[in-house]
Amino acid sequence: MKQYVFSRTMLQSPDENVELVSENAVELVKSLKSETLKGIWLCGGADLATTLFAHKLIDQLILKINPFLMGSGISLFSGVIGQTALELANSNIYENGVVLLHYRVK
Length: 106
Prior knowledge:
The chain is an alpha+beta fold and 106 residues long.
């Protein structure tokens, strides 16, 4: 599986098998989406998620809810995004209280 790290601050990739991307994230994701039949997985990165969401490049949203409150944490999005309808595609509740919600962007 090809892996990318999107960062504006890193100067080199943490691993020789991981490509560092510091600019043109939208163009790269558009290119990847047009080239492959497989999904692209984005984990973390509120700034990147906001940018890709604004360009309608996110098709699904998978939310993991943990059964504890952290007080503060990493935001899902870093800025304002347009109101968007989501359709629940799947949900799982695990014995440890974790809830996993899979949404399709309508």
